[in-house]
Specification:
Blueprint (H helix, E strand, L loop, with lengths): L19 H11 L4 H13 L9 H5 L2 H10 L4 H7 L15 E2 L1 H9 L17 E2 L4 E2 L1 E2 L14 H5 L25 H16 L6 H4 L4 H16 L16 H6 L6 H4 L20 H15 L15 H9 L4 H11 L4 H7 L8
Antiparallel strand pairs: 1-4, 2-3
Helix pairs in contact: 2-4, 8-10, 8-13, 10-13, 10-15
Length: about 350
């Protein structure tokens, strides 16, 4: 490509719900360039600078000068720019690239004669289930841009275990039915839809979650998912609530249980606490969200036959009483910022557990 080009002669139009890394990857494919290489050219054109060490491509795309240069070269309309660079929600994954996808969505893209693309919602840390199909997102295998289209063959997509799951899970698209609230995926859809609404300023249903404002719900969800994902070094303890049974892992299309989640390979940087934003793997985030649903929601039924408690408080007592002291101490400290009325009505006193 000519560094001084005024516009890109070939530039795919972004889809309505497409994420920025996905669209930029499709642009790069047209010129047989890697995103890193093309970004280097854009940075030199935009500000005469090179990328900082250890800065990922997705973060470099957010640089204002680079974004403005891309908008000019791609002849993007105002609506395209607003969609590709939306306001931050503070729930974006730290690994903000195109790293997970729904096989069903991608097969439908192929049926519509377009290259599968990454949806913006897949970059949100609370999103682990495809809302359209009721199936768990899959970790994407990255390859060189020159072989990009081979990733999206129907044969490759249909080889995913999630794609081969029983058709009964398609019924999760209408997860309001009480009969299917008993599955892990239904619980995940319930909490993820509530989270998305809270981010938009819609208060959660009081019967399901208690009387909470959107910000209060999000604060408590952050605390509980962080608690679920943290190893509490140096003890390396883990709550018994994280002990997913084989039935629960299968119901959740392979939700990752305690043993694998103890591996540092599932996390990016080493942190004293780990949030949803720190974890790229949607199966790990899904396990934390499912645990939060068990602690917060009025109705929650485990996929297995293990005792889980009829009420929210019974579930809290059964699981927290078996957790390590370090985990309970951390949660007790975080609860001090929760609304007092909510704690009295919906929670046990964690300090009284032994």
């Amino acid at each position: 490509m000519n560094d001084c080009a005024h516009v890109w002669p070939v530039c795919p139009r972004p889809e309505i719900d497409e994420s920025l890394p996905s669209w930029f990857e499709r642009v790069c494919h047209e010129y047989t360039m890697t995103p890193t290489l093309l970004l280097g050219v854009l940075e030199r054109e935009a500000a005469g600078k090179t990328a900082k060490a250890r800065t990922c491509d997705a973060e470099r795309l957010l640089d204002r000068a680079v974004a403005e240069r891309i908008a000019v070269l791609g002849q993007l309309s105002d609506s395209d720019r607003n969609a590709l660079w939306p306001p931050a929600t503070r729930w974006e994954l730290r690994d903000s690239g195109f790293c997970s996808y729904c096989p069903y969505c991608c097969v439908e893209d192929i049926a519509q004669h377009r290259t599968p693309y990454g949806r913006r919602c897949w970059q949100q840390s609370w999103c682990t289930i495809c809302n359209a199909h009721g199936t768990a997102l899959v970790v994407r295998q990255q390859t060189h841009v020159s072989s990009n289209h081979s990733l999206w063959s129907p044969a490759k997509l249909k080889s995913d275990r999630q794609f081969l799951a029983p058709d009964q899970y398609r019924a999760l698209k209408v997860a309001r039915e009480p009969a299917i609230r008993s599955t892990v995926l239904a619980c995940l859809l319930h909490i993820e839809r509530t989270t998305a609404a809270a981010i938009s300023g819609i208060a959660p249903d009081a019967w399901s979650w208690g009387t909470l404002s959107p910000d209060e719900f999000l604060m408590i969800l952050t605390d509980l998912t962080t608690w679920s994902l943290t190893h509490f070094e140096p003890v390396r303890s883990w709550s018994a609530a994280e002990e997913l049974t084989p039935a629960e892992e299968q119901e959740g299309y392979g939700l990752i249980g305690r043993i694998r989640r103890m591996s540092a390979s599932e996390y990016g940087e080493q942190r004293m606490t780990r949030t949803l934003q720190d974890v790229a793997n949607p199966k790990v985030r899904g396990a934390a969200l499912w645990t939060a649903h068990a602690f917060m929601a009025t109705c929650h039924t485990a996929a297995s036959d293990r005792p889980s408690g009829i009420t929210t408080q019974e579930r809290q007592a059964a699981w927290l009483s078996r957790s390590a002291p370090a985990a309970r101490d951390w949660l007790t400290q975080r609860q001090e910022s929760w609304p007092p009325s909510y704690r009295r009505e919906r929670w046990i006193d964690v300090r009284e557990l032994t």
